[in-house]
């Protein structure tokens, strides 16, 4: 089985048995091999279309379905004397995490409760209706009501993208398109494509699209002189407005990430509703609409970034799944307010990132088990108060900006 850059197959390739050293020779953009359960796959062409990474177990609970795609890519297996994990991964941690996942599946922790999401959908409809009923009586109560609507939608569409809320994935995708496209005005396919990449390699340069903001923020790595980065902890607040986020979304949709015609149609339906409903009442740049978009965007950015931005941001270290996720995320402590305000994403570290397909109503039950696993293996488990987590975003941006100033302007 000859590969790119080789004159012919080696003896090991003829026998379909490989060492880790041979597998790692195929780690280039146009020649990529992958090991899953000791099986070796040539994923060169597949990787160009797939948004994730080596995350078969985490993102795809139906392994039978996955095998339909992997089987044609199979080129061999690891030699019997080779370990199941490459040298940078802790075998004991991998084994214990898999045992925990099996235990959680047997306990039904990956099964969604339709009534839980049905109640949230009912709340969305009530908020949507309430916003319009308040138009005639108290116009400035609309932004806050509408912001609550957008927050609820964000929670629900997040779970639709991660886990199977409905019995079939097709209904899951339809519901997510309606929520993302019609109510929020963006592409569900774009969101999934970016979000799966983020979960596969959080805070890893060139692999996590959520940190590809080197023209706006700097982490003390590259010499970039576009902006006064030593003030980034201040202008970060301006970046959280709806306008900047929405323009960034559509740049990706049109130029980088996939977007189907169905997704585009749903997104355009949001603007049809906007021009039919908001513009006649408030004008194209209506203050009410801009107000709730501003509030919603601040909520979205703070909730998503306070678990990631203060954490380690670095190049690929090829760590095991548990160690990689914990080094890039932290938790916000549990409380009734924190659970509601973040939509249970305060459990970002030990649930949302470790177990992407788990529905969020089970997060609090799994957290103690993950904490015990970390204590067993001496892995740092970080949990903060809401105030500390938000303040750490400010501090981390300020610190990296000062490092940039010292490294590139004062040398």
UniProtKB/TrEMBL annotation:
Pathway(s) per entry: Lipid metabolism; polyunsaturated fatty acid biosynthesis
Domain spans labelled Cytochrome b5 heme-binding: 15-56
Membrane topology listed for this record: Multi-pass membrane protein
Record GO cellular component, one term: membrane
Any one Gene Ontology BP term: unsaturated fatty acid biosynthetic process
A UniProt-annotated Pfam family: Cyt-b5
The keyword ATP-binding belongs to this UniProt entry's keyword annotation: no
Swiss-Prot/TrEMBL keywords: Fatty acid biosynthesis, Fatty acid metabolism, Lipid biosynthesis, Lipid metabolism, Membrane, Oxidoreductase, Transmembrane, Transmembrane helix
Localization of this protein: Membrane
PROSITE patterns on file: CYTOCHROME_B5_2
A GO molecular-function descriptor: oxidoreductase activity, acting on paired donors, with oxidation of a pair of donors resulting in the reduction of molecular oxygen to two molecules of water
Family statement drawn from the similarity comment of this UniProt entry: Belongs to the fatty acid desaturase type 1 family.
Stored PANTHER family: ACYL-COA 6-DESATURASE (PTHR19353:SF12), FATTY ACID DESATURASE 2 (PTHR19353)
Protein name, entry field: Fatty acid desaturase 2
Lineage: Eukaryota, Metazoa, Chordata, Craniata, Vertebrata
